[in-house]
């Protein structure tokens, strides 16, 4: 038997933060690829510490639904799962290369295939493109600029690395006229997004797992889409003569379920048929592959 655990942050303050986790778990559960599928959270139940005890499977694939490598993926989750011998050097990562490590959970004796975060997987580029196509309802976006938004923080340099990684790959793909990484708390700032591009249209996609205060309130106001998020705004909204197409958190895109499965597949899970089924169900007919377009691979 094999099980999948999707590990996410959760929130005591924003009850909607866990909704994407449950939605992606339901999508994967419906494929039948795993005997058991569980959601686990840091700030909600079931907790990271208890989730393995709820499983009968001896082999467990744990996929963190986080944007970047850092404190939670490198310390909190391995500690709470009690992974014997865990060492972040097992990933041999420079901040975007985390793959997987196979360890034993000491208290339950299960084999845990611990995967890198969803947000740094190459397939997340497909999700960003799908998000852009969904909000614009256009397949061809070669005349559009794309802003990939991250939080940015001095506490975790890898937070920005994930944003730049996807922006660089998508720029090389030629799918957009220009692609830039922008941030809430670092330069270049999302406040200036309308002035950073020479295109008449810019799609803004936040690389956040769930819609919350930042994506629903801060970013729209910072970009000048509205003075008060409670009053709403048009999509697109003209800011300094540039049409801004704001897409909301990328983690809510159904295609993220595919990235979760890709992470598990990289760790050895037999999910080939499930990946195909999820793509057919969630992709909406798009075929965006930055690697194929750019002629490069990770």
UniProtKB/TrEMBL annotation:
GO terms for biological process: cobalamin biosynthetic process. SUPFAM superfamilies: Chelatase. GO terms for molecular function: lyase activity; metal ion binding. InterPro entries: CbiX-like, Sirohydro_Cobaltochel/CbiX. Pfam families: CbiX (PF01903). Keywords: Cobalamin biosynthesis, Cobalt, Lyase, Metal-binding. It comes from the Archaea. This is CbiX/SirB N-terminal domain-containing protein. It comes from Halarchaeum salinum.
């Amino acid at each position: 038997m094999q099980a999948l655990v999707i590990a996410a942050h959760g929130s005591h303050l924003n009850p909607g933060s866990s909704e994407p986790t449950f939605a992606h778990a339901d999508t994967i559960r419906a494929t039948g690829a795993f005997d058991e599928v569980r959601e686990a959270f840091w700030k909600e139940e079931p907790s990271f510490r208890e989730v393995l005890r709820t499983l009968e499977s001896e082999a467990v694939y744990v996929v963190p639904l986080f944007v970047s490598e850092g404190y939670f993926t490198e310390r909190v989750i391995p500690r709470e799962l009690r992974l014997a011998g865990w060492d972040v050097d097992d990933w041999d990562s420079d901040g975007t290369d985390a793959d997987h490590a196979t360890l034993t959970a000491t208290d339950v004796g299960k084999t845990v295939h611990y995967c890198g975060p969803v947000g740094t997987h190459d397939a997340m580029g497909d999700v960003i493109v799908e998000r852009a196509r969904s909000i614009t309802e256009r397949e061809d976006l070669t005349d559009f600029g794309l802003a990939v938004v991250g939080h940015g923080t001095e506490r975790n340099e890898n937070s920005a690395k994930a944003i730049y990684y996807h922006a660089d790959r998508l720029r090389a793909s030629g799918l957009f006229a220009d692609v830039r990484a922008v941030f809430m708390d670092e330069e270049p700032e999302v406040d200036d997004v309308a002035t950073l591009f020479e295109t008449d249209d810019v799609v803004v996609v936040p690389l956040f797992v769930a819609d919350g205060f930042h994506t629903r309130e801060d970013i729209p106001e910072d970009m000048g889409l509205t003075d008060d998020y409670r009053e709403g705004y048009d999509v697109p909204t003209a800011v300094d003569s540039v049409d801004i197409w704001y897409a909301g958190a990328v983690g809510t895109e159904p295609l993220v379920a595919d990235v979760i499965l890709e992470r598990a597949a990289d760790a050895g899970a037999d999910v080939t048929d499930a990946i195909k089924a999820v793509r057919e169900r969630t992709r909406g007919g798009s075929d965006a592959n930055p690697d194929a377009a750019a002629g490069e691979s990770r």
